[in-house]
């Protein structure tokens, strides 16, 4: 049992959960999945395809005939982490196939690790399968494997990520994701709903909607309607809310039409939770980022959202130390944070990323100043979080159980996304709880990021 750390990077997905028993003669593939939840969904799709062809999934290097490393290229530190993971897989197993965002730069990978067997880019599922076939030929059992595939999940059975689109049309100067993953490409709404229905039918209690820009869902396909489902985020949220599971929205840009989602939250169709990448608050900093510079209007929007749905939880991430950020601009960010009173806040220090336009900006901030600003920002965010959680003591609320061990049940409220927000711990009378249960608790104690309570 651990409490929530305050400095999680925004490009890290929850830890993959793998376990499978090998049948005699079955080829086994290992998977190392790095990067964001969107990459985790890609890993699930790859393994689902392989599982349908008779491959097993190995939870360790020693049991795998080859290992796929799904990489991240969000930041230079993430690239270094990906290269380290490739090196570890080569050392421990020796037969390694690389895919994912960093795979868009194959020479960068092979220049460091020339022994990799193949390199493919993000969501190039067919190329990954071809590479696996070449490295480890399939050997399906016709009585077991050649059946409709049950999806391989890398998350616990009670929640699942639901990716509704790929790519992004924004041109933020610090980000190279559109260069690696392309422009916005939305999935048809009826296909998203079919997947969501299958997940709920299989026991999933919480759907975490993800994309690069959830608010823009359907713009590229002109909000097409098919099979009774329209490709617009408001319509999709309403349709998903009809399935009876918790529906949590991530990566929602604060476009004006987002206000149409708030009544759905007030009515209980989707969780009263918005994950919005504000990134900064000073208009000059936002302009240098090539992001909309309307922080004051954003405060008005937040006030309007809370008027409709007082229990709404707002989560965001910010960058400190962006090139040219002055002390006055940073102080504006702190003042904005005080006024916005966001519930969940993540922050990371600016890093140059190869290919990002922000690298060429003047007046880069020294590392020691970035660290100082990060410390001050997180202290301010922590104080806000602590006060907001203290106000929940004595309240009753629904929680979902994520883990039960000898010490406690680790749960989450509707205000908490898995592994990036806080937890609610039940450390007495939890013996009858099981993972995936949704129960009512009374909050008895609050910390900086987590709550403690009892089942009622």
Automatic annotation (TrEMBL):
Enzyme Commission code(s) on record: 2.8.4.4
Region (Disordered): 1-24
Protein's name according to its UniProt entry: Ribosomal protein uS12 methylthiotransferase RimO
Keywords: 4Fe-4S, Cytoplasm, Iron, Iron-sulfur, Metal-binding, Ribonucleoprotein, Ribosomal protein, S-adenosyl-L-methionine, Transferase
GO terms assigned for molecular function: 4 iron, 4 sulfur cluster binding; aspartic acid methylthiotransferase activity; metal ion binding; protein methylthiotransferase activity
Family: Belongs to the methylthiotransferase family. RimO subfamily.
InterPro entries named among the record's database cross-references: Elp3/MiaA/NifB-like_rSAM (IPR006638), Methylthiotransferase (IPR005839), Methylthiotransferase_N (IPR013848), Methylthiotransferase_N_sf (IPR038135), NA-bd_OB-fold (IPR012340), Ribosomal_uS12_MeSTrfase_RimO (IPR005840), rSAM (IPR007197), rSAM_horseshoe (IPR023404)
């Amino acid at each position: 049992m651990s409490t929530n750390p305050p400095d999680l990077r925004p490009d890290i997905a929850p830890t993959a959960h793998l376990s499978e028993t090998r049948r005699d003669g079955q080829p086994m593939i290992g998977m190392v999945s790095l990067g964001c939840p969107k990459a985790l969904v890609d890993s699930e799709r790859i393994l689902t395809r392989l599982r349908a062809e008779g491959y097993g999934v190995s939870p360790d290097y020693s049991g795998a005939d080859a290992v796929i490393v799904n990489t991240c290229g969000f930041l230079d530190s993430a690239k270094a982490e990906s290269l380290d993971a490739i090196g570890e897989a080569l050392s421990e197993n020796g037969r390694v196939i690389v895919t994912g965002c960093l795979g868009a730069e194959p020479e960068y990978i092979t220049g460091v690790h020339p022994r990799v067997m193949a390199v493919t880019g993000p969501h190039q599922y067919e190329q990954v399968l071809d590479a696996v076939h070449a490295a480890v030929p399939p050997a399906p059992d016709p009585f077991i494997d050649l059946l409709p595939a049950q999806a391989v999940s890398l998350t616990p059975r009670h929640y699942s990520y639901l990716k509704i689109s790929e790519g992004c049309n924004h041109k933020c100067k610090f980000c190279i994701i559109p260069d690696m993953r392309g422009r916005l490409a939305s999935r048809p709404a009826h296909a998203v709903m079919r997947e969501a229905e299958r997940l709920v039918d299989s026991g999933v209690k919480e759907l975490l909607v993800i994309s690069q820009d959830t608010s823009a869902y359907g713009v590229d396909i002109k909000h097409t309607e098919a099979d009774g489902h329209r490709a617009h985020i408001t319509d999709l949220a309403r349709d998903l809310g009809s399935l009876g599971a918790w529906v949590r929205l991530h990566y929602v840009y604060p476009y004006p039409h987002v206000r149409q989602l708030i009544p759905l939250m007030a009515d209980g169709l989707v969780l009263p939770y918005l994950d919005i990448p504000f990134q900064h608050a000073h208009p000059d900093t936002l302009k240098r980022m090539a992001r909309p510079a309307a922080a004051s209007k954003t405060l008005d929007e937040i006030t309007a959202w809370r008027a409709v749905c007082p229990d709404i939880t707002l989560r965001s991430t910010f960058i400190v130390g962006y090139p040219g950020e002055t002390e006055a601009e940073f102080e504006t960010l702190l003042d904005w944070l005080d006024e916005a009173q966001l519930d969940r806040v993540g922050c990371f220090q600016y890093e140059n990323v190869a290919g990002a336009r922000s690298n060429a900006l003047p007046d880069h901030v020294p590392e020691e100043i970035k660290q100082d600003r990060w410390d001050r920002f997180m202290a301010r965010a922590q104080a806000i979080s602590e006060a907001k959680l203290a106000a929940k003591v004595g309240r009753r609320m629904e929680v979902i159980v994520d883990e039960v061990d000898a010490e406690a049940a680790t749960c989450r409220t509707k205000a908490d996304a898995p592994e990036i927000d806080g937890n609610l711990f039940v450390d007495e009378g939890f013996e009858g709880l099981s993972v995936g249960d949704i129960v009512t608790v009374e909050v008895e104690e609050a910390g900086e990021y987590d709550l403690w309570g009892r089942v009622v």
